[in-house]
Structure formats: structure tokens, C-alpha cells
Inverse folding.
């Protein structure tokens, strides 16, 4: 798995001051994507344990609320990439910080459909390791700059843990 960039002290991508990891690679190629260069799986630098450790150290700062994982698309990664991101999420949450994830997949794609294969299972694990998922592909015709934490009106900001407990989508306030 590659990553496009890491931003420290990011206030645009989630609640509070965050560290944002932009992974490379996306299958959706949404017209009007805000990060088209990151659609290529080959773009950027290789993600490895040293990069993960650097992110954990950055997130450990008291002023940081948590980690945001964007892209590209985190859920479009191969099995190894999905597992690395899941382990990173667990390390961040263990430190008492939140994890937000943006994906072009919908909640229903991730959690309501029967598992198609092992990759789908890993996608479920990763999404379940997060606190908030912003789901759905960016739709240029529904774009609205006034929306908070999402680019188009079809996307939803979902409280993952509350939704899993309730068995239905619970919006993040």
C-alpha cells in the first residue's frame, strides 16, 4: 500500500485537531474528486511499520484528537493494506483517540451485504475499527461546500460504534 501524504494538525478532516493519512488508490474515480492524483495505487510513498509508528507518535500528542484516513480510498486497498490500516486504527484507539475514515463504499456495501470474499471481511474489520465513517462516492452534481466533513449531499457521516450496536445507521452529530 502507498500513501499520498500525512498531515499533522489538520482541522478540516474530522472533529478537532487531527493527523490525516491520505492513502493512495481508489477504484471509484469520481468525477470532480478533490484528490485525483491519489486515485493511482502507485502514487506516493510506501506505507510500512516506520510510517505507522510515526503516525502513532504524532497522534499521541495531547492536542491531537485522533486520526483521519482518507485517500484515494482506504477500503480499496489490498488485504495487506487493509490489515495494516486496521492495526493502525487499533493502536490509535488504544491511546484514547478517535479514528475517522472516508470511503466511496456505502455502509450497506460494507455491513449489509453477505461477505463476498476475504477482502470484504477485511473491509468490515477496518470500518468496524473506526469511530466515524463518511460513506458514499463523491457526486459532483450533489457537491456543496457548506457541508461539514463531506463533499456531496449523498455522503453520510456515520457513528460506527452506535450504528453497530443499534443495527441501523446512526448519524454522527
Amino acid at each position: 500500500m502507498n500513501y499520498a501524504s500525512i498531515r499533522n494538525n489538520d482541522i478540516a478532516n474530522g472533529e478537532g485537531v487531527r493527523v490525516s493519512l491520505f492513502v493512495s488508490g481508489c477504484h471509484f474515480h469520481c468525477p470532480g474528486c478533490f484528490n485525483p492524483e491519489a486515485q493511482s495505487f502507485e502514487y506516493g510513498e510506501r506505507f510500512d511499520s516506520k510510517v505507522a509508528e510515526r503516525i502513532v507518535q504524532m497522534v499521541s500528542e495531547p492536542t491531537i484528537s485522533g486520526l483521519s484516513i482518507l485517500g484515494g480510498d482506504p477500503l480499496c486497498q489490498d488485504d495487506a493494506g487493509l490489515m495494516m490500516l486496521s492495526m493502525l486504527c487499533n493502536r490509535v484507539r488504544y491511546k484514547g483517540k478517535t479514528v475517522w475514515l472516508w470511503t466511496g463504499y456505502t455502509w450497506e456495501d460494507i455491513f449489509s451485504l453477505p461477505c463476498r470474499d476475504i477482502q470484504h471481511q477485511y473491509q468490515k474489520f477496518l470500518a468496524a475499527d473506526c469511530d466515524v465513517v463518511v460513506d458514499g462516492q463523491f457526486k459532483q452534481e450533489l457537491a456543496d461546500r457548506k457541508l461539514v466533513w463531506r463533499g456531496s449531499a449523498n455522503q453520510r457521516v456515520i457513528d460506527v460504534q452506535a450504528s453497530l450496536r443499534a443495527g441501523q445507521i446512526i448519524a454522527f452529530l
Notes: The mean pLDDT is 96. The longest strand covers residues 2-10.
